Amino acid sequence: MIEINDILDPSFPGCGSVISGTVSFASFFRSYLSSTREKFFSIPYERPENVFTLPGESDGEAADRISGGTLVSVGIPYSFGSAGSVDWQSNPTYNGYKEWTWQLSRHNDIKLLAHEYLLTGKKKYAEAAEALLSSWIKTCPCPDKTVPGDGTKTWRTIECGIRMGANWPYIIYSFYDVFSDSMLTDIAISLYEHGNRLEHNHMHGNWLLMEMNGLSHIAVLFPFLKKAEHWKTFSLEMMENESGRQFYPDGFQYELTTCYHEVAVNNYQRLLEMLKVFGIAIPEKLYSILEKAAEANVLIMESDGCLPDINDGSSTEVRSIIEPKLRLFNTPLLNWSVTREGEKPSFSSVALPYSGFFVFRSGWNEDDVYGLFDSAPFGRGHQHEDKLSFIVSNGAHRVITEGCCYAYDDSPMRHYTLSSYSHNVLLVDGMGQNRRKSYEWHDEDIRKLSGIRYGISDSVDWAEGEYSGPYGDDEHLPALWKRTIYFVKKHECLNSPVFIIVDRISAEAEHEYTLLWHIDSERKAIEKDKAIYSDVSAFFAANGNLSVVKGSMNPVAGYIATGKEQGMYKAVDELQYRVSASSCRLVTVIGFSGDIAGVEASDSVGSADVLLRLSGKELVLDERKLKDSAE
Predict the structure, then answer these.
(1) Which DSSP symbol is given to 534?
(2) CA-CA distances (angstroms) from residue 251 to 274, 276, 451?
(3) CA dihedral (189, 193, 199, 200) positive or negative
(4) How far apart are CA 553 and CA 569, in angstroms?
(5) pLDDT tens-place string over residues 95-122
(6) Can you give the pTM of this predicted structure?
């Protein structure tokens, strides 16, 4: 069993008196925290992450509820009777959803109690915080080194990193003068145990950034711990190395999902702000890498100002995540994204050539048309089988959508949102993409271009990518699929922009090809070669069959997730356009204003013309000329 003297650095001022017994550890700890309190609280409060409050609940109401022993994890409440009676190993969910137990031990609720205590001075919040923290420390012993970082319910290293890098420091600095002496001693020993676990059992990917940020916080904020200097050197070297290993040259984090991109950036932000306040030198390259990573959020945001929830992403407001980053770096693009003052960006459409995304824009206003083409590699984690998928917003409304991110359970809905079947891609003989089965990441991949090709001009933008990977569980390689998207922003014959999507498929044998399009809009009409909705229309040019599925559960089809908690999904139209052929060219046109009555195009792979039937006239567009105009 670890004793307090075992974890102290005898050379640190004041620790010798504690070790000799002339000063109590609690007195020493309070004195140290009092001397550094002003520095710590110069870092603005960051609200805890994840769903630990009830819908419509104020922070004060949540604090009262938590004080009574009713806690919320992943949006699901459970009453333990009192704050001191929490069973941290429990799982009250109907299907044993593991995230409930894991996220409970992040202690978001205790941090909320701390914040409300500082605002109100209510003694019951301090009492509840001590009861919760004490019960956790006493009933959740630290596992030994043989237990891997993901091998426990309460000491997964992701939770260790979040506790140390986001929540416990705020809790400790808020309550140190009212917590009991024994509580402060238990906290210090647990800090040391956290440090050892984070050093020896850390994982990889975004977990590693949370883990090393947490270890850095232990080392810098509590330098009297015996291994603090070693942990500081170790964690900062790891964070610096990972900045070059995890971020593509165009700024996107290698998991290629908007949620975890921001998780990565945010943990660096927490680290840099803490180091700056406590006078620790910061490598200059971290600033340049994170500045570009923050700007990637702005480059990819939709017309409504939110991130597209690609892969296991989240539709977060960009302004809210960029605003705190202005404390560290303030480029014109970042500043504009928050204040909306000054000149708008001088560009509209933009490519991220390493991470493989292309963003089409008619402008930066809320009523502009937006499209995101995903020609990205298979991400390092949290990936969906969605190569060459395409989403579209008409103003602030996502009209062509995709499965989004559902709860991390083992449900059919979760598997559906991960699969090709929930994305706007090509199925071959009913099979979706299957890169996951044989996927391997290599560190040198971070420096490779994605292979996306593109062109941008005032009137036309285009982007193009290929998928030649496996389909189905048996990893068939039936066909090569190339998708080219043209965005005709301005044309004298058109009242609004149009997207022309050309899919070229090459194969030796005949297959059934199915194009999927998920539409979140009010349906007006479905005909043989067109689907008309209130604010978007899709037209097809080939000898195929168009059908629509909405809200099917067997198999799951025609749904999108509306949030990351269980049960958060809704039915949408899933257009399925089927063609039987070997090699062919399929043309889909997406319009918004009612200009288009129909589309004609040859299904020959080598053809280039696309005919748009407009009101009283025809417009013929040549793919080669469209590309030439945007070179």
Answers:
(1) S
(2) 23, 23, 17
(3) positive
(4) 12
(5) 999 999 999 999 999 999 999 999 999 9
(6) 0.94
